[in-house]
Amino acid sequence: MRRYTRELKNILMSNKKKRIWIGSSLLILLLFPLFYRIPVIEVAGEDTSFFIKEEAFVLGWIHSIEKEEWFERYQRKDEKIILSDTFFKTFGAGTPFQAKKTMTENGFIQMELDIDYEDLNVTISEFVQTTLFIGDREIPLYHHFDQYENVMITTRKLPVWEYIRGDYF
Q1: Cross-referenced InterPro entries, in alphabetical order (predicted)?
Q2: pLDDT in tens, 30-64
């Protein structure tokens, strides 16, 4: 009889350990979304903001003096925004000087760069047609923000629930 009691006690202890292990695992799975953060790019003005899930975007505009198109390609890396390339047609005010490589193609001068920013501060203007290009999408910022509004482009890490319900372009 003692032998059966001992075996039953061992079985019950084994089941109790399994329940504790399963319960602990479930608790960890439930708490995971509270601590996990997903990196995005935030585009924020005074009253409007939205997120970009993609890791890269191009900022384009018409240069106010040369009246030529200008494009800058950025990538999100960790908590920085990296300017990787710039494309323009004429040298002038604001032309980067720290290029790794410079070449010409299709009438544009392309400069390879590696400049990191904590955030980008962009003044929106319909006159220069400030626009974001993300993949095959075009987002004319001058339609979403007021004329001459200051817009901040920065990286953020969103909690899972905010990422799921976020405003994206």
Answers
A1: DUF1850
A2: 766 677 889 999 999 999 999 999 999 999 999 87
Query: Residue 48: how many CB atoms within 10 A of its CB?
Result: 14
| 25 and 81 belong to one structural domain | no
- At residue 134, the pLDDT reads 96
Q: Residue 130 is part of which domain span?
A: 37-165
Nearest of 153, 161, 159, 146 to residue 51 by alpha carbon: 153
The total domain count for the chain is 2
Please tell me the pTM assigned to this model: 0.79
Contacts of 112 (CB under 8 A, 6+ apart): 84, 85, 99, 100, 101, 102
Work out the pLDDT band at 77, boundaries 50, 70, 90: very high
Q: CB-based burial of residue 93 (10 Å sphere; 0-12 exposed, 13-18 middle, 19+ buried)?
A: exposed
Please, which residues bridge with residue 82 across strands? 75, 116
